[in-house]
């Protein structure tokens, strides 16, 4: 009798368990239908799927600022003067007084040629000059005596004229001897080869102990003037009118040069504009001058040239926020509900980092600078705060408490 009672109790327990599961299932279905019909929770899911998350973006506020109007080009650094140093006299090069690549000043001695032969010629010329001066002195003394005798009718007029011609002849010899002395002294000075300009030396092409002369094609060394230095570049002919307008309004136009990474190398001014346009390229050549005090510009170096034309004020946005579409230039603007709107804008001026807006935006509005590829009109966004901005916000939100002095512990 015990076994049938046990089977009946098991059946009763199974029926009770199925009844509880059915009640729970009905309660779950009722809760789901009630939450779906509630307007406050209806937007939490669509078709049984979770709602899409807000798109993270970075924004920047529109602000007032100044942007410089520029025209850019690629230029080549050129030395204003390049001189090949040669010897003016022929002889043995006895010493080199410079190091390769050294900066030198005008008149600085670079090398020396054996001066002994030139010293001997100078002394010989001086001796000849003294001899001629002595002969002239004797002839002038005789001329004075002949003039007194001619007044007394003691000599003929022909003798007086002959003596006067002798004096003039000796004066010419003295003058020629003086010129020979000056030339010999100059040749002796040329044995010291000096720098004709201030600049940087190249690599020397001849060593001490060799014979050197002015007819050598390579010379001793090449000097390039690096302070100041020039940069030659070309601009399209359509920019020429704006450049001339600014040149007439201002005495000089500021020019800056940067390297390939965008670092500024030097600041200078526009020096000259060519007198004709190249018909093959439609450009005009220009030259700017730079002080190059830090020697950052080197001859034949390629640089990025920027000619500053004017400064304009207005609303500025980052250039990366500007988009181009079928409507033209536009930006994504984030409203108070964290929803983006497409806003068409008119661009006044733009460069690599900032853009000056003529119309379409107001100061203080926030434009999207990162994350634009995932945006559409009406997209919900979440603004990503930069780490620096977050630190500033946290610092501003923390109250400042004055530090109290520590009291010593007493036992």
Q: How would you sum up this structure in a few lines?
A:
The protein is an alpha+beta fold and 411 residues long. The chain has helices at 2-37, 116-151, 157-189, 240-249, 387-397, and strands at 55-61, 63-78, 82-85, 91-96, 103-104, 109-113, 192-194, 199-201, 211-212, 221-224, 229-236, 254-258, 264-273, 283-290, 302-318, 323-325, 328-334, 340-344, 346-350, 354-359, 366-370, 381-383. Strand 12 and strand 13 form a beta hairpin.
Question: Care to describe what's here?
Answer:
Residues 81-224 form the Multidrug resistance protein MdtA-like barrel-sandwich hybrid domain. InterPro entries: MdtA-like_b-barrel, MdtA-like_BSH, MdtA-like_C, MdtA-like_HH, RND_pump_MFP. GO terms for molecular function: efflux transmembrane transporter activity. The chain has 5 helices and 22 strands. With 411 residues, it is of the alpha+beta class. α2 (116-151) runs antiparallel to α3. The radius of gyration is 47 Å and the shape is elongated. The chain starts with a helix and ends in a 14-residue tail after the last helix. The relative contact order is 0.16.
Give the key terms.
411 residues, alpha+beta, 22 strands, 33% strand, disordered N terminus, cell inner membrane, efflux transmembrane transporter activity, MdtA-like_C
């Amino acid at each position: 009798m015990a076994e049938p009672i046990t089977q009946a109790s098991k059946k009763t327990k199974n029926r009770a368990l199925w009844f509880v599961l059915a009640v729970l299932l009905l309660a779950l279905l009722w809760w789901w239908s009630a939450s779906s019909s509630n307007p406050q929770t209806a937007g939490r899911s669509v078709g049984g799927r979770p709602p899409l998350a807000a798109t993270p973006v970075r924004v920047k506020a529109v602000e007032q600022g100044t942007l410089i109007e520029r025209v850019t080009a690629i230029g080549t650094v050129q030395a204003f003067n390049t001189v090949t140093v040669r010897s003016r006299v022929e002889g043995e090069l006895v010493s080199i007084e410079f190091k390769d690549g050294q900066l030198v000043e005008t008149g600085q001695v670079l090398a020396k040629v054996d001066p002994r032969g030139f010293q001997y010629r100078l002394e010989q010329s001086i001796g000849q000059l003294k001899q001629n001066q002595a002969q002239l002195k004797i002839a002038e003394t005789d001329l004075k005596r002949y003039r007194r005798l001619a007044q007394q009718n003691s000599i003929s007029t022909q003798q007086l004229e002959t003596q006067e011609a002798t004096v003039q002849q000796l004066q010419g010899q003295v003058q020629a001897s003086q010129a020979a002395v000056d030339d010999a002294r100059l040749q002796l000075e040329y044995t010291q080869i000096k720098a004709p300009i201030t600049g940087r030396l190249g690599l020397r092409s001849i060593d001490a102990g060799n014979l050197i002369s002015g007819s050598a094609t390579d010379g001793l060394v090449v000097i390039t003037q690096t302070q100041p230095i020039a940069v030659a570049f070309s601009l399209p002919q359509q920019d020429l009118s704006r450049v001339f307008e600014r040149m007439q309004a201002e005495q000089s136009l500021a020019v800056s040069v940067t390297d390939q990474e965008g670092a500024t190398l030097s600041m200078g001014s526009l020096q000259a504009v060519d007198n004709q346009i190249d018909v093959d390229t439609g450009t005009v050549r220009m030259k700017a001058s730079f002080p190059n005090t830090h020697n950052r510009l080197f001859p034949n170096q390629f640089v990025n040239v920027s000619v500053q034309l004017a400064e304009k004020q207005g609303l500025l946005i980052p250039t990366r926020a500007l988009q181009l579409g079928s409507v033209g230039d536009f930006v994504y603007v984030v409203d108070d509900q964290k929803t983006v709107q497409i806003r068409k804008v008119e661009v006044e001026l733009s460069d690599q980092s900032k853009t000056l807006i003529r119309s379409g935006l107001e100061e203080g509005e926030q434009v999207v600078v990162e994350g634009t590829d995932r945006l559409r009109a009406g997209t919900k966004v979440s603004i990503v705060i930069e780490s620096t901005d977050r630190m500033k916000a946290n610092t501003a939100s923390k109250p400042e408490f004055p530090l109290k002095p520590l009291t010593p512990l007493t036992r």
